[in-house]
Amino acid sequence: LDLDTAKQELEEFIPHVRQMSDSSVRKMAGRDLVRFKQFKKQGIAIKFGRFSQKENNQIRKNVEEFLSITGIDNAEKLLFTSRYPDEKETINRLKAQHLFCEKLAEGIPRAWRLIYYRARKMFDPNNYKGRYTNEEKEKLKKYHALHGNDWKKISEMMSRSNLSVAMKYSEIKSPINYGPWSREETQKLMHAVEEVIMKRTELEDANSLSSSEKSRRNLLIDREKLFQKLPWTEIEAKVGTRYWRQCKQKWTSILTNKMTKGQQLYRGTKGLQAKINLIKRLYEMKVEDANEVNWEELSNIIGDVPRAYVQAKFYKLKVSYVPFWQKKTFSEIVDYLFEEKLPELEEKL
């Protein structure tokens, strides 16, 4: 396919394809377009966002089958071939011979590149090494001063994953405050969020609204834009004294307070009732994975709150009440809460 035709055909499945680089579009046309069309025939939509447990299991199955076909020892050699220079040529030959790209993506309605990144995260033995020591943090600062944002090189030097070192550096690159937010920090956060939302809205409206409508839109922002898909690393840089996850949590707290007019929704009798309602509704949904849950719909169970608030409350429920929750699937966690914890909460209420 020529580039324009590839973009046109891919746009049906990837709405933002025209914002991608030409080389990325060419790779996607080669690796994904035929797969996307096959999924369409089966009535399966192309997915984005977090991977479900079912998709993670499919990746594991695909990797295990490919290893058994090729005789490659382990998933690290398959997905991090450059770490094994002596075997690199043989591994790459086997990957080409047995169609590694096609096999890895089998049965998963997503772009190949995203499946590959997910597999690398799942099978990287350097990805789950616990907290950074003070010595490691100092090393990370030193390596970044020498190599900048070359996370691949730094990750090899520290025996940590690319993602891990990049995120940790985001936390330690400036004096981060872990105490209560000051009034000045809160104002900085609110101004930072306002800036990115207004910038995004202006870009969206540039070609679609008249000047009178634009001036009116300054006062009217769709509520969803206040808490969905905000660029938190950009906001972190504007705030300066907090890392991105703190900024996100604080912003959710501010929004919740505004939307509920300061009511304490999750305290006392109201809190018990909210927990009961949340567990019941999740159980009624009968979904297998957290990614299938409509968290906006659930927000009405607790009150008029952002979805992140509801997700945080569910996280607290499972951590507080479900033993060995890390080893359970989403549906097993919900079943346990419904069968074991719900009767206690109702009795307490």
UniProtKB/TrEMBL annotation:
Superkingdom of this protein's organism: Eukaryota
Transmembrane segments: none
Cellular compartments per GO CC: nucleolus
Domain Myb-like residues, every copy: 124-172, 173-255
GO biological process: termination of RNA polymerase I transcription
Ranges where the HTH myb-type domain occurs: 124-177
InterPro entries reported for this sequence: Homeodomain-like_sf, Myb_dom, SANT/Myb, TTF1-like
GO molecular function: chromatin binding
Entry protein name: TTF1 factor
Encoding gene per record: Ttf1
